[in-house]
Design a protein that fits this description.
The complex is a heterodimer of chains A (about 400) and B (about 120).
Chain A (H helix, E strand, L loop, with lengths): L1 H26 L2 H22 L5 H20 L3 H19 L8 H8 L6 H13 L3 H7 L4 H17 L12 H16 L17 H14 L4 H15 L24 H15 L6 H13 L1 H4 L4 H14 L3 H15 L1 H9 L3 H4 L3 H13 L3 H14 L3 H10 L3
Chain B lengths: L1 E8 L1 H6 L6 H17 L3 E6 L7 E6 L2 E6 L8 E9 L3 H10 L7 E6 L4
Antiparallel strand pairs in B: 1-5, 1-6, 2-5, 3-4
The chains are: A mainly alpha (about 400), B alpha+beta (about 120).
Chain lengths: ~400, ~120
């Protein structure tokens, strides 16, 4: 039942994003388009139960929304140029609606606007979730651990900026595309938000947005089939998602990746991830997300071979640290080194990381505790585990780490 | 800017404080959390409180003193302690609040302190 509801919700999203992108692109005004579309949905909920659902619901919604846009423009007495733009929207909408309403899909342009460099980086993912998927600010706020009022303000501010700064609804040219695409992919990945799952599990706050992030990932792959990093990101998310049922045991206790029961992994999702990654790698343009997906692909092999090829993983992380030296990649590389060359080598890699960066990074301390325990440095291990426990948000992870702490 | 993290615990949380099987995990989690706050240099102060059953509430009405056994408000979750932290903004404060052990069982309220 909940699944059916969820499926309907996800299907409705395709319409929402397309309609919003279409309306927003013409006025370059996301906020006004959202208000108009919101009104149109409200009107639909009042009208459709009485007169029946129209043959082409999207066209109905588009006509209703553009009417609102024009009404509102009249009320607020916007400048002549804006009014002209709105009239144009109205005319094109009429034409498209009267035919089969095959209006152009401009969601890609909308994605590039949401992740534009002129927009505050912290606002990009929330904006994308709202503009493309129609999520409300309160839901986004709890995923990002921000007060709902703050999130609403932030979203209002960026939409004002899009309008006032005149950010264009365009697909960047070939020279700018790779970098701009990366901000789109980063924003989607932030919505999925995996930590280094071997230690910490997926970031518990963002767990609720995993479906939305994968949906966006699929959308970008569909809209930009020739960009291998888009495929890399989708494959990465699918690999992580495939393991969700194995991350907790029957009693709800946390299970680290290396001890997960592979029978609980989703075979179809892994197969799909492998297929997408293979397609992406044919372009011979490796990048951060393809490398991360490749690491997860190696982990997935354990379901077939029964063991984990840590040499391959260490090599992939070495490459990843070179192209994207994030704190998560460095800690993961240290973990792989510990598996291939021993706990001492792993600890050496951790020691080389700057202290101020790792201070509040939970996976660093969890791995450090684990390696110190292996090396028999019990007192230090206890301290590191305590630090990791103090930085954990998830009760199950806290319990797991207490269980690991040497007595 | 300083914020107070108000810790609201369930009956079950209060029970874990003295339960032979669970008390080590309970206090261990708070000890670790306190150390993490100290090491990050954000800790200003705080206290754990005795359970609400031990509370006494006082009101002064029409010149008369009313003393009542129990907490100010009956609720499923009761104030079990607080931390005062010094961080740049609300987002950082919420980040720390989410790590408070009570966040996964009871609730944690974050309030900016009034500058005096």
């Amino acid at each position: 039942m909940r699944d059916a509801h969820r499926a309907a919700e996800l299907a409705a999203r395709a319409s929402y994003g397309r309609l919003l992108a279409y309306l927003a692109a013409r006025g370059r005004d996301v906020a006004a388009a959202e208000d108009a579309l919101g009104d149109a949905f409200t009107a639909a909920l009042e009208t459709w139960p009485r007169v029946g659902v129209p043959d082409n619901p999207d066209a109905w919604l588009l006509v209703a929304a553009r009417r609102r846009l024009v009404d509102r423009a009249r009320h607020t007495g916007v400048e002549a140029t804006a009014a002209a733009t709105l009239r144009r929207v109205a005319e094109t909408a009429d034409v498209t609606a009267s035919r089969e309403s095959i209006f152009p899909d401009e969601r890609l342009q909308l994605l590039f606007v949401c992740a534009h460099p002129a927009i505050d980086e912290a606002a990009r993912t929330p904006l994308m979730l709202q503009a493309v998927l129609g999520l409300d600010a309160a839901r986004i706020a709890s995923a990002f651990l921000v007060a709902p009022a703050t999130m609403s303000q932030r979203l209002v501010r960026v939409k004002t900026k899009i309008r006032d700064a005149g950010i264009g609804f365009e697909i960047p040219g070939p020279e700018a595309l790779p970098e701009r695409l990366h901000s789109v992919l980063d924003a989607i990945y932030a919505a999925y938000g995996t930590g280094w799952e071997d230690v910490a599990g997926a970031d518990p706050r963002r767990r609720g947005l995993a479906d939305e992030a994968i949906w966006l990932g699929r959308l970008v792959v569909a809209l930009l089939p020739d960009e291998p990093e888009a495929g890399g990101l989708l494959a990465l998310m699918l690999h992580c998602e495939a393991r969700r049922p194995a991350r907790r045991d029957a009693s709800g206790a946390y299970v680290p990746l290396t001890r997960q029961d592979v029978a609980l992994w989703s075979r179809p999702m892994i197969d799909e991830a492998e297929r997408i990654l293979a397609d992406a790698s044919r372009a011979r343009r490796p990048g951060r997300f393809q490398l991360e997906a490749a690491v997860q692909s190696v982990h997935a092999q354990r379901a077939k071979t029964g063991h984990t090829d840590w040499e391959a993983i260490a090599l992939l992380y070495e490459g990843l640290v070179r192209v994207a030296p994030t704190i998560g990649a460095r800690v993961a590389h240290a973990a792989a080194l510990a598996e291939t060359r021993g706990a001492g080598a792993g600890l050496g890699a951790l020691d080389a990381m700057p202290k101020d960066v790792v201070m509040a990074y939970q996976p660093y301390w969890a791995l450090r505790g684990h390696l110190l325990r292996e090396l028999g440095r019990t007192d230090e291990a206890r301290d590191a585990y305590a630090r990791a426990i103090g930085l954990s948000e998830d009760g199950a992870v806290r319990e797991f780490l207490s269980g690991q702490t040497p007595p | 800017m300083t914020y107070t993290i108000l810790i609201y615990e369930t009956q079950d949380d209060f029970g874990a404080r003295t339960d032979a099987k669970r008390k080590d995990a309970y206090w261990g989690a708070y000890r670790a959390y306190t150390v993490a706050l100290r090491e990050a240099g954000v800790m200003v102060g705080g206290h754990a409180l005795q359970p609400a059953a031990v509370a006494t509430t006082v009101r002064q009405r029409d010149g008369k003193r009313q003393v009542q056994d129990g907490p100010y408000a009956e609720a499923k979750e009761q104030l079990g302690g607080y931390y005062v932290i010094d961080v740049p903004d609300l987002d950082r404060a919420l980040e720390w609040a989410a790590r408070c052990p009570a966040a996964s069982s009871g609730a944690v309220e974050v309030r900016p302190n009034l500058a005096m």
